[in-house]
Amino acid sequence: MLQNRQKPKPRAQTGLPIIRCRCGVEILLLPDLKAMDNAVETHVRSHGRKEKDPFKAAAEAEHVRDDLIKKIFQEINRLE
Ligand SMILES: [Zn+2]
Q: Which of 6, 29, 51, 68 could form a disulfide with 56 if both were Cys (CB 3.0 to 4.6 A apart)?
């Protein structure tokens, strides 16, 4: 009988390019810049929501965005 309850492989093992946020969330690297931008912004907003202080939330969002963008460029360089 086939095992049908196999855990899905983490993306990192599928060979698809991903970037990993410092919170551990993996974001798939997309060839479409607009889609990539949306994915980053959606995730950045989820970080901002965790912070109640609007100034801290803005600073946190900024840090996460910078971090993710840096990782996107590192990953693109690694692929080329
Ligand atoms: Zn994150």
A: 51
